[in-house]
Amino acid sequence: MTDENRTFLLFPDDGDDLTEWDEASDLTIQNEQLEEILSEERALELERELEQDENPRDYTVELEDEEEEAAPVSEKRLKRQIRAEALARLEDAARTEDDFRYVVSEWDRLDRNRERRERDHENLRGDVPLEYMAVPNPKMIPLYLNLPRYRQLASGNFLDIIFSCPYELHELVASSFISELIRSLTIDQKEVLYYLSIRQYSTIQVGMIRGQTDRNIRKLRKNIHKKLQRAVYDYLLEKQNDCGSLTLRERQFLEEYGLLLKAYGKDAVILRENKSKPRKKKAALGSSKDSE
C-alpha cells in the first residue's frame, strides 16, 4: 500500500460526508438545548403547581359576592377605595426623590401582586418552538392533533386563537399604537385586512367570501394601506424628532414612504404584491435558423 493510499484511508477527501456530519452534529446540539429548555419549563410548572397545593390562595375572598355588589356600601369596596385614595394622596404629596421612590415602590408592589395572581392561573410559554418533537406523519392519532395550532391550544396558550378573528384583530398586536390604529378601522376594512394579512387569502378568495369583485377588494386594500401607512409615518416621524430610537425596518419605511409622499402627495402608498416577473419568450426555430 502506497503512502497516498494510507493518507486517503486516514483522511478521506469526501466533503459531502463532512458536511453531513457537521449538519447532524449541529442538529443534535440544537435538540439537546431545546430539550433542556423544555425540561426547565416543565420543572417550573411543576414547582408552581406544588406551591399552589401547599399554600393555596383563595382569591375569591377579595371579591364581592352578589349581596355585597347589590348593597350601596361594602366593606371590601371601601378598603379598595381607601387604598386607591391613599396612593393618590401619596402621588400628589410627593416632592422629594425619596417620596417618588416610595410611590414607585408601592406601584411595583401592586404589580407584583397582580403578576402573582396571573402566574397562579397560567404558565407562560418559553422560546421552545411548537413544532419541536412533532410527529411528521402520525399513524395512531388524527393529523390535526399534531398541528402547532392545536398544540398551542392544548398547552394553554389560547389567546392567539381566541383573538384570531377580524373583530378582535387589534388584540394580536403588542404595540399599543398599532392596536389602536387597527381598532379605528371600519368593520369592512378589518375583515379585508384579516383575510389578506392573517389568513393569507388572495383577493379573489376574499371577494368570493364577501360577495365582491377582485377589483373592489384590491381598491379597499389600497385604501387600508394608505390610511395605516400615513398614520405610521406620522408616528415614526414624531418619534424620530423626539430623539427616539428606530429599527432598521422603520428607518427604511420612513425613507421609502417619504419619497413617495413627495412624489404623489396624499395618494402615496407602498404596495407589496406577489407578482412574478414575466417570462422571456423563446425565439422561434425559424428565426434562429435564419439568424445563423
Q: Measured on Cα atoms, how large is the radius of gyration?
A: 30 Å
Termini distance?
57 Å
Order of helices and strands: HHHHHHHHHHHHH
Shape: extended
Biased composition (Acidic residues): 61-70
Region (Disordered): 47-74
Biased composition (Basic and acidic residues): 47-60
In a few lines, what is going on in this structure?
Residues 47-60 have a biased composition (Basic and acidic residues). Residues 47-74 are annotated as: Disordered. This protein has 292 residues and is an all-alpha fold.
What does this structure look like?
The chain is an all-alpha fold. Among the domains are: 21-54; 75-128; 163-267, no CATH class. Helices cover 64% and strands 0% of the residues. It contains 13 helices and no strands. The protein has helices at residues 3-10, 15-54, 66-70, 75-93, 97-121, 148-154, 159-162, 176-183, 187-198, 203-210, 214-241, 248-264, 285-291. Helix 4 (75-93) packs antiparallel against helix 5 (97-121) and helix 10 packs across helix 11 (214-241). The longest helix is centred in the N-terminal third of the chain and has 40 residues, at 15-54. 5% of the residues are buried. Mean pLDDT is 77; it is low at 6-12 and 14-19.
